[in-house]
């Protein structure tokens, strides 16, 4: 479907409130949403229904949902021009999710690498994995399609899910007429896959317990500094962007996204210097970015303004989502 209601392209994206946010979430997704905020018309969500695909403690889930919302705003999303809301507050997400389940072949979901990886990690517990975890990408398709999003700014690991969303939208359009906008993933050239600091062969992730692997957005400055100083590198001496040296490459990539400098400028800056210098400079850059965001987050978390903002965001999101859901229901004979 071609959308003619606005000149600006529309974006939709979300983060799960399942455990602490980390630097990868910020650099691969949220920072880019903030940087491009004026270019697009934006809707950003805290996807709590996705978080419950694995067991969550209710008290922690509520707290983490507020933390992710506070982080969005503290990082620079302006709720006056960008819709920020919690997924479960808008019932059309689950409703369209069900409808899309009925047109999505199971074979498409069986091919999703994130599910295959998560299921493999469960080993003998595989039988206990929820149906929701398997069905997760259909709910994600529902999120995106409800807002007629043209672009979905995400980290590299979500590309396959956005491609599945395209396939689902195209199938609906084929079966019921041209009623859904077919979205595209929007993936940064730099920072779309931040790797772990301890094991740079694995992506930085919420669900990884390896000590020093992730930099938590709310970690204490001394812990952040320690994790960076201990980051795995190699025994070579030059500081250059070399994909064959994954630990160093990752540290330089993080520095590149934070500083906005070019690779050439960065290599010149560290010419003749050692890993200690690079790590100290990187730790300063991470803390210079995160400390003011953490301070703004803390004051938002202690105020009821945050809950008011989320209520208002859900009210604005609901108008758009219900309109799309009704369009789909009408086309399918459900109205
Ligand atoms: P988990 O690894 O437990 O599944 P997650 O850390 O990937 O969780 P999500 O809420 O699934 O967190 O991701 C939110 C956004 O952050 C997504 O757009 C995702 O692509 C992006 N993202 C997650 N990890 C990284 C990373 N290491 N580098 C860059 N972007 C990332
Ligand atoms: N599946 C995503 C989170 C997510 C999302 C979305 C991202 C849920 N719904 C819609 C973009 C658009 C993840 O695991 N990071």
Provide an overview of this structure:
The protein folds into 2 domains: 10-193 and 304-331, HUPs (Rossmann fold, 3-Layer(aba) Sandwich), CATH 3.40.50; 221-298, Tyrosyl-Transfer RNA Synthetase (Orthogonal Bundle), CATH 1.10.240.10. Helix content is 53%, strand content 7%. It has 13 helices and 5 strands. The protein has helices spanning 23-35, 48-51, 58-74, 92-101, 106-110, 113-122, 131-146, 159-176, 221-229, 246-259, 263-269, 275-301, 305-332; strands spanning 10-15, 41-46, 83-86, 151-153, 184-186. The longest helix is centred in the C-terminal third of the chain and has 28 residues, at 305-332. The mean pLDDT is 95. L-tryptophanamide (LTN) binds at residues 12-14, 16, 47, 50, 140, 143-144, 152, 154, 158, 161.
The total of helices stands at: 13
Helix content: 40-55%
The domain count comes to 2
Can you tell me the residue ranges where pLDDT is under 50 for at least 5 consecutive residues? Answer: none
Number of strands: 5
CATH-level-2 architecture of the largest domain = 3-Layer(aba) Sandwich
The description of the largest β-sheet is: 3 strands, parallel
Radius of gyration, whole Å = 21 Å
**The CATH H-level homologous superfamily of the largest domain:** HUPs
CATH topology of the largest domain: Rossmann fold
Ligand inventory:
adenosine-5'-triphosphate, L-tryptophanamide
């Amino acid at each position: 479907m071609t959308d003619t209601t606005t000149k600006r392209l529309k974006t939709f994206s979300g983060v799960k409130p399942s455990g602490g946010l980390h630097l990868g979430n910020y650099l691969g997704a949220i920072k880019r949403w903030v940087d491009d905020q004026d270019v697009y018309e934006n809707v950003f969500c805290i996807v709590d229904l996705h978080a419950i695909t694995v067991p969550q403690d209710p008290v922690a889930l509520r707290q983490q949902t507020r933390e992710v919302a506070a982080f969005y705003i503290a990082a620079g999303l302006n709720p006056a021009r960008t819709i920020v809301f919690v997924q479960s507050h808008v019932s059309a997400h689950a409703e369209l999710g069900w409808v899309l389940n009925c047109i999505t072949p199971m074979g498409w979901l069986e091919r999703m690498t994130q599910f295959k990886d998560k299921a493999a990690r469960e080993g003998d517990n595989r039988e206990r994995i929820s149906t929701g975890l398997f069905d997760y990408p259909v709910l994600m398709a529902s999120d995106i399609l409800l807002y007629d999003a043209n672009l979905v700014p995400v980290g590299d690991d979500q590309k396959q899910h956005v491609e599945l969303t395209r396939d689902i939208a195209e199938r609906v359009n084929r079966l019921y007429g041209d009623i859904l906008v077919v979205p595209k993933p929007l993936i940064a050239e730099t920072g779309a896959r931040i790797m772990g600091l301890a094991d740079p062969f694995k992506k930085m992730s919420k669900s990884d317990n390896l000590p020093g692997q992730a930099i938590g957005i709310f970690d204490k400055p001394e812990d952040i500094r320690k994790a960076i100083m201990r980051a795995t590198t190699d025994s070579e001496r030059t500081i250059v962007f070399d994909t064959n040296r994954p630990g160093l490459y990752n540290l330089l990539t993080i520095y590149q996204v934070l500083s906005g400098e070019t690779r050439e400028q960065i290599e010149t800056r560290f010419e003749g210097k050692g890993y200690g210098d690079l790590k100290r400079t990187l730790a300063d850059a991470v803390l210079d970015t995160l400390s003011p965001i953490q301070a703004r987050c803390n004051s938002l978390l202690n105020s009821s303004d945050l809950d008011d903002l989320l209520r208002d965001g859900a009210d604005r999101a609901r108008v758009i989502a219900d309109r799309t859901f009704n369009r789909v229901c009408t086309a399918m004979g459900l109205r």
